[in-house]
Amino acid sequence: DLSQYLAEAASIVYENDLLRSFTNVRPEQLNLQDFKLKEKVTSARAVAMQKQLEREVAELEEERVRLKRRVRQMSELAAEKVSILHNLQPEQMLQLEEI
User: Fold this and answer.
1) pTM recorded for the entire structure
2) Which of 12, 34, 42, 79 is the most buried (most CB within 10 A)?
3) What residues have CB less than 8 Å from 26, skipping those under 6 apart?
4) Measured between alpha carbons, how far is 83 from 79 in angstroms, rounded to an integer?
């Protein structure tokens, strides 16, 4: 395992040197700290966005449940109103709805 790991690391170093020679980039020209910092910032931003989206989904789900409950209440009130104002039985109301 260790020898395989060292072989892969040596291969990566060789590849890195080869790519630098193709592009004429010296090691001191690269600022890896800035690159690592940008990577961390991008990652942190993605995590923050994910959390924000999860909060929004939870809020929307709560609103959906609240609205669903409100629709049921309004339906019950409408049925009660028709029943009281027009002296109809629930079965008669259903027949009217079908028409």
Assistant:
1) 0.50
2) 79
3) 20
4) 6
